[in-house]
Design a protein that fits this description.
Chain lengths: 267, 315
């Protein structure tokens, strides 16, 4: 087993995640095809594209959930780039619980609905061996505060929370273990616009404060504009355009990206 | 515990069963599972659970383990909720008296095999004894994780954080760990195990016990074991250490202050008393002359009777 102790990763001149020719086939059908990119610490990468363009498939491969049909995903840990799918499963699962996190589109997929908000946040701490109730509780309270949930709701179950609160709770649950890389699949999906705005604001603050590397999957170009440094546009499983967010959105080169940016409604 | 191959004598024309009901191949299969379970303390070994002449959930796992172990020289004690005289205990004892022709007893010290549901006897067990538990749900993580494939992985890789989430929830909601039975334990520093629905009062007795402890879950088709003198630790938090139940009064019949007590409702006017759940322990103490505060009242209400000897208990 690798030493999974949170190593001080101060180096920012090495990519934290390297995808090389990641391909995932569903039988003869393409999930995603030959995707290569590098992600640096503190960088936020957006993946945009319409439904069915392979965004979520790509994320599942990058996050170590599904094994790609071809290609490799390397994650920098303790100074070495390790191939996710060369790792044995317990080590990969341990990494998933500590070094990175996944924020699901539907908070119900990421939260334990029958367990209180405090327990949801504390689970990752207990997973990594914390056995002191007071410490877990204090950290849970701290994180509830950071995601702007009243500390008095700590012992309430997420079922009694609004959609926006559930999403914020899910983010707290993922970030409490201080991951270095976070995957977010449509983090603002299903929320109304004002709640979306607050969530985006919160995410922007957290990502900047913690120096997280993040991959955000969205079909909402406004979200991409607000949060991401770099953008990848996907269509039919392929990356059709890639570049700095402002560049891609303001001066789209590919016909599909042009269609996408022109389809945004302005009020 | 001989490897008996003798069959029951047909006797007065009754159907002849193989000794201890199960056929020899089945016993071999169960013994293999038992050996594996003892070799890996706390690990749940799958086994081919058979149909038994009582409904699953009534102790078929325990009965199959007992049937695989028992020999003609064994003395069997069966308890249910600590008592020797409850329906299920009497039926199972009678079953083995009939199909294995073994001696049965209510005495904890005389028994070589004790099959139990819900309790560990108050009297400490010795090296020559085996405790067989009837287990309804062998998987301690089941209420938290529904997938069997997932719980197996969690056991394999010791991913036990979730178990503490359950304890955390108790403390957050009630101020203390409110789980009072089936309280999860760590066996031999490796596997988290469900001790079957015994009260957590009995958990400390499992630690470093001289007797062999075997667990059979008939419906769930799992066998697990704790070898003698194995460490069994109840899970807890550093700042909320494991504690057991306490009572403010002694046993009303025998005056014991160190046993697990059941509440007995006496009438519809709010009268009640606490009595030892281990009926044999209580009777032994009364025979030794210990008198509880409500013994006379209980006798006048005909709530206390003399123990039925094994011979009278119609074979």
């Amino acid at each position: 087993m690798l030493d999974l102790a949170p190593a001080a990763e101060t180096s920012t001149d090495e990519p934290i995640l390297i995808a090389d020719g990641v391909t995932r086939m569903y039988g003869a059908r393409v999930g995603c095809l030959d995707v290569s990119f590098q992600l640096w610490p503190g960088e936020v990468l957006g993946i945009v594209g319409e439904s069915g363009s392979g965004k979520s498939t790509l994320m599942r491969c990058l996050a170590g959930i599904d094994r790609p049909t071809a290609g490799s995903v390397k994650f920098r840990h303790s100074g070495r780039a390790i191939d996710l799918f060369d790792l044995d499963e317990p080590t990969r699962r341990a990494l998933m619980r500590t070094a990175w996190g996944i924020v699901h589109q539907n908070p119900r997929d990421g939260l334990r609905m029958g367990i209180s908000a405090g327990g949801n946040i504390g689970e990752r701490l207990m997973d990594s061996g914390c056995r002191h109730y007071g410490t877990i509780r204090a950290k849970a309270a701290d994180w509830l505060g950071r995601v702007e949930i009243d500390a008095q709701r700590m012992d309430d179950q997420p079922t009694s929370f609004s959609g926006g609160m559930q999403q914020r709770l899910q983010i707290a649950r993922v970030l409490v273990s201080e991951p270095r890389l976070v995957f977010m699949d449509e983090p603002t999906g299903g929320l109304d616009v004002s709640v979306q705005a607050r969530l985006l604001d919160l995410l922007r603050v957290l990502v900047r404060d913690l120096g997280l590397a993040a991959i955000i999957i969205t079909h909402d170009l406004a979200v991409a504009r607000l949060l991401t440094d770099r953008l990848m546009v996907m269509k039919e499983g392929r990356v059709v355009e890639e570049g700095l967010t402002d560049q891609v959105l303001d001066d789209p080169q590919h016909a599909y990206t042009q269609l996408l940016t022109s389809a945004v409604l302005t009020v | 515990m001989t490897t008996a191959t003798e069959t029951m004598p047909a006797g007065d024309g009754a159907t002849a069963y193989n000794f201890a009901y199960l056929d020899e191949q089945t016993k071999r299969m169960i013994r293999r599972a038992l050996l594996k379970a003892i070799a890996v303390p706390g690990y749940q070994v799958p086994f081919g659970s058979r149909e038994m002449p009582l409904a699953r959930g009534w102790g078929t796992g325990g009965i199959q383990v007992t049937a695989a172990l028992i020999g003609p020289d064994d003395v069997l004690k069966v308890i249910d909720q600590g008592a020797d005289d409850t329906t299920n205990a009497v039926s199972i004892r009678r079953f083995f008296a009939r199909v294995a022709n073994v001696a049965t007893t209510e005495s904890t010290t005389e028994a070589t095999i004790i099959q139990t549901r819900h309790r560990i006897p108050e009297t400490a067990l010795g090296e020559s004894q085996i405790l067989v538990y009837q287990v309804p749900q062998p998987e301690p993580l089941r209420k938290l994780e529904a997938s069997e494939a997932e719980t197996r992985k969690m056991h394999a890789w010791q991913e036990y954080g979730l178990m503490h989430v359950r304890l955390y929830e108790d403390i957050a909601r009630f101020g203390h760990v409110a789980t009072t039975y089936s309280y999860p334990v760590m066996v031999n520093g490796r596997y988290v195990m469900s001790p079957s629905p015994i009260p957590k009062f009995d958990n400390p007795k499992m630690d470093d016990m001289a007797a062999l402890q075997l667990f059979g879950a008939g419906r769930e088709k799992r066998i697990y074991a704790i070898p003698p003198y194995t460490s069994v630790k109840s899970l807890d938090f550093e700042d909320h250490p494991f504690t057991v139940q306490k009572w403010s009064e002694p046993c009303a019949l025998c005056g014991a202050t160190d046993s697990y007590l059941d509440e007995v409702i006496l009438d519809d006017k709010g009268n009640h008393m606490f009595v030892c759940s281990d009926s044999h322990f209580c009777e032994t103490r009364r025979a030794e002359g210990h008198v509880g505060p409500q013994l006379a009242e209980a006798e006048s209400r005909k709530l206390v009777c003399q123990p039925v000897s094994a011979d009278e208990e119609g074979r």
